[in-house]
Amino acid sequence: MVQRGTFITFEGVEGAGKTTQVQRLATALGPDVVLTREPGGTPVAERIRDLFLTSDGITPMTELLLIAAARAQHVDELIRPALEANQTVICDRFTDATVAYQGYRGGIDLDLIHQLNHVATGGLTPDITFILDLPPEIGLQRQQRAETHRDRLESEPLEFHRKVREGYLFAAKSETHRVKLIDATQSPDAVHAALLTEYHKYLSQQKFF
Ligand SMILES: Nc1ncnc2c1ncn2[C@@H]1O[C@H](COP(=O)(O)OP(=O)(O)O)[C@@H](O)[C@H]1O
Ligand SMILES: [Mg+2]
């Protein structure tokens, strides 16, 4: 296999600490890191993100197709070239979010979601995925405390976010090799330390291949 950079994704319910932790990990890993997010990450995909987050009455299928379109652009234009240039890519949400939001919450068939994820990514999968696991009520409390502007999905009722968490737990159980479940109720320092440990474990395993 051609050597390429490590692809790391972060997942979890709103307020789990993804944005906080992607930044901390990027700082810890040094300058050769590309930090990005989904939906979005490139100008075209960010326009799709705006449409996605501000449209009322959007159906789960429309969500799925918009997300897939944004992801195809993001992978082709930014993620794959960066990995091929041997950079580490850290992405705030990726394909597991589609399983959790459009599959578990939106009720779309998981086989279809896996197929579309495969098409949109051209078969690219993360090397490590951190799911920051947290009861959604704590995540929503954190966001209320921070008084940030709440987008369409963040304003959904608690039941919505419970289904999303269930979807993430399912993803963690079905791919234990790639997906690392991190207890996000811990302090930011403890979460950062836990995921750094997992990252170094991953790197040391790579040496044997
Ligand atoms: N481990 C933590 N414990 C307590 N508060 C946290 C923790 N991690 C993040 N926060 C705070 O919770 C809020 C949401 O965090 P954020 O990183 O934006 O989450 P996300 O990107 O997953 O929605 C922010 O105000 C952040 O400072
Ligand atoms: Mg965030």
Please give a structural write-up.
The protein has 209 residues and is an alpha/beta fold. The protein has a single domain, classed as P-loop containing nucleotide triphosphate hydrolases (Rossmann fold, 3-Layer(aba) Sandwich). It is built from 8 helices and 5 strands; from the N terminus they run βαβααβααβααβα. Strands 2-3-1-4-5 form a 5-stranded parallel β-sheet, with helices on both faces. It is globular, with a radius of gyration of 16 Å. 40% of the residues are buried. Adenosine-5'-diphosphate (ADP) is lined by residues 12, 14-20, 142-143, 146, 186-188, 191.
Brief summary:
This protein is 57% helix and 12% strand. It has 209 residues and is α/β, with parallel strands linked by helices. It binds adenosine-5'-diphosphate and magnesium ion.
